Amino acid sequence: PFLIGFVAAAAIIMLVVAAFTALYAYHHHLDLRDGVAYVRIARLMGKRRRKTSRNTPRFYVHFEGLDEMETLPETYEPLCEGAIYTVVYSPRVRRCWEAEAK
Questions:
Q1: What residue segments make up the domains of the chain, in order of their start?
Q2: Which end of the chain has the lower number of beta carbons within 10 A, N or C?
């Protein structure tokens, strides 16, 4: 009886995790399918690095006129606040793909 309940609870948790993962992948797929990658010239207003519970850092940038977006370490590191960049981003998933200094 206990083992059956434990297995059922574990299965429900796995289904919830799979649903969130599928939703995340679906949003990225929509941007890629629609060819949605916008390009804009904007000033970098701020950047921040946040450590997650798994000790894996996440990198965020905020450009003038755009929402805060997550980006890769390679994009994040060379950025200087106040500088102007050509930004390639996907608004639906709030991802900054590339930022090149102007």
A1: 1-35, 38-101
A2: N
